[in-house]
Amino acid sequence: MYRLSRLLIMFVLTYPCVQVWGEGVSDLRGALAKQGKYHISIAVKAVEQQTNVPITVVTGSEPGPTLLILAGIHGSEYAPILASQKFGRALSPSALTGSVIIVHVANLPAYLGRTVYTSPADGLNLNRLFPGDGQGSLSQRVAHLITSQLYPLADAVLDVHSGDGNEDLRPYWTGYYAQVGDADLVRRSEALAFAFGFQHVVPFQWKLTNVADAIWAGSAAIALGIPAIDVEAGGMGVIEDEAVAMLVEGFHRSLSNLGMISNQFDPPTNQRIIYARQSVKSPQDGSWVSLKAAGELVVAGELLGYVTDWHGKTVFEARAPSDGLLMLRLSAPPVLKGETLVVVAKTRSKR
Ligand SMILES: [Zn+2]
Asked: So what's the pLDDT on residue 204?
């Protein structure tokens, strides 16, 4: 026992990074003040419910911007969660200017509950609850924590998703709000979206009339004047090494773009803009049978799949609304009335 504790002390004394296990937001602020790597867990409590938000903070030797990476807003989107862990473990404080705050699993109840879209704690979709409510349900309080405690520390936000456990998503893409905020904010978000390095970028055309309409994590950051992008890679509840690797590289490219690391990357080539997206929704509850994979080119009118009733009779045919790229499809049978079955995209070269 004595030997073991001595070994532990030796390990702590000789470990190259400061490791802190804390529970409060004060730990987070402390972590931004001094070079090191910190593992922090912030408790979120609601009435008779509790969760934790696991965070790694890496603070460099020189002051600089703070990049916030959000993973696991949706608990069954695994590539972002794994990529955030891999990135956090590998990132060295000594190579960094500024700080990176990495939220590894924002929605731990959904992750552990293996649910898509919503949290089993309250049945709500965390990415529809921003800016959140500090007196609300568990998910509303997690959104409130992110908006009120993490966003004020951030100079840029990456909200990282994949296709959910029942969604096939190809190609992988980044998106930014092209119609929200002043020109400088749009320009900085756009620059981040392209710098991440994925081949496809979506300029979101949504407009916000007031801050309360910013129900998505990314738009809530934008509403506060913080450059933010959405990132989408992976899906269908599987671990895809390619998606994880692309995300880790994208995180490093983002650091380079913000001047936080000295590494230079070759600029991405052949980037394309997804300028239109059309979805087909199910007219009723039923079973979805998909005939195509995400990433395939389709032609207008082509049969992409169909919905059956509970006895297997076809009740709806989903046909491509235009020529284009099938960028998202439901990959599992259960479908509710009004849910998106497929999304077809139109793309053009960036230039
Ligand atoms: Zn998501």
From this structure: 95
Would you state the structure tokens that stand for residue 215, as one six-digit string? 């129900």
CA of 75 to the centre of ligand 1 (A): 8
307 CA distance to ligand 1 middle (Å): 24
pTM of the model: 0.93
Q: Provide the pLDDT for residue 3.
A: 45
Tens digits of residue pLDDT in 221-237: 999 999 999 999 999 99
More confident residue, 23 or 291: 291
d(CA 133, CA 68): 21
Q: Which domain holds residue 176?
A: 2-257
Instruction: Report yes or no on 264 lying in a domain.
Output: no
Instruction: Find the CATH number of the domain harbouring 181.
Output: 3.40.630.10
Same domain, 130 and 250: yes
For residue 161, how far is its CA from the centre of ligand 1 (angstroms)? 4
In the numeric block, the tokens 């007219």 are attached to 283
Instruction: State the burial class of residue 341 (Cβ atoms within 10 Å of its Cβ: 0-12, 13-18, 19+).
Output: buried
Cα-to-centroid distance, 73 and ligand 1 (Å):
6
Query: Which pair of structure tokens corresponds to residue 142?
Result: 């997690």
Note the pLDDT of residue 209: 78
Q: How far is the CA of 15 from the centre of ligand 1 (A)?
A: 35
| CA of residue 164 to ligand 1 center, whole Å | 6
pLDDT of residue 20: 53
- Tell me what percent of the residues of the chain surpass a pLDDT of 90: 87
* CB within 8 Å of 139: residues ≥ 6 apart: 107, 109, 119, 121, 122, 124, 125, 126, 129
Q: How many domains does the chain have?
A: 2
Asked if residue 81 and residue 49 are part of one domain, the reply reads: yes
The 10s digit of each residue's pLDDT in 147-199 is 999 999 999 999 999 999 999 999 999 999 999 989 999 999 999 999 999 99
When pLDDT is cut at 50, 70 and 90, the band that residue 342 belongs to is: very high
DSSP-H helix ranges across 98-178? 108-113, 138-145
Q: Which residues surround ligand 1, an ion (CB under 5 A)?
A: 74, 77, 161
Positive/negative CA dihedral, 77, 81, 86, 87: positive
